[in-house]
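User: Sequence in, structure out. Go.
Assistant: Echoing your sequence, followed by the structure tokens.
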Amino acid sequence: MSLQLPASLTPSKVSAFKECALAFRLSAIDKLPEPPSLQAFKGTVVHRALELLMWEEPQGSRSLEAAMSRLERALDELLVSEEGLALGLEGQALLDLRADAAELVRNYFVLEDPDQVTVLGTELRLQVEVGESRLRLRGIIDRLELDAHGDLVVTDYKTGRAPGLSQEGLRLGGVHFYAFLCEQFLGRRPARVQLLHLREPIAICSTPSDQSIHGLERQALAIWAAVKRACSEEDFRPRPGSHCSWCGYHAYCPAQGGDLSQLPVASRRPAEGHDGQAALALSLQAGA
């Protein structure tokens, strides 16, 4: 093949390929880093704070005060990460970030009572192989829990604006992807998947079905076939749209006046492995 196939597909990679094949190539194959984003960093901070709250605090102790303490800890951790240092936040910019992240955490408590959530795991990495080509599908689940009936529920936190009705199905496709991973890996289909949009705040819920699960598998295999064909022909074409406004690859995109010939030699990483420790822990908990 002219270009090396990516090691696996994730919900974000599937979405990226459908949105813009060239951006997919630059990210998933050439491994070009995008410029650090304040919005993405804020989302990472809030996700980390809620992960710490739900995993470290037992039911009955998940108060707003505890959540704010975890938010400060998450911010301290991530400000010295590679992304945090690249952003160089200080002064008013840091104060604004802290205030907005705190608002998002407070909004989480509007959507649900965390003391009523029976958590099985947070930031869980699952990977399965499907199809004759043994395509590897993987994803990181923000939170997996048991509901009052003992059924699995997949929860995904979102810190950006909630989508319009026309985009709602696309957003739910990601959590249905996680439901598929759970069914394949654990042998149990989640009874519900939900997006908790912390900005508004609103919750968007859906019930995985045979149609949604099998449709997702077919779509993933079709996308994989298209990726293999594009790698073989070295043909990843840009698809201009609203997403171009936040894309960090304009320097290489012909549709934005860039030059793909200026692409640096790709520093490809080794194939991504299975997070066996997290998956084993999940499997043992789910079977207990």
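User: And one key feature?
Assistant: Residues 33 and 135 are 25 Å apart (CA to CA).
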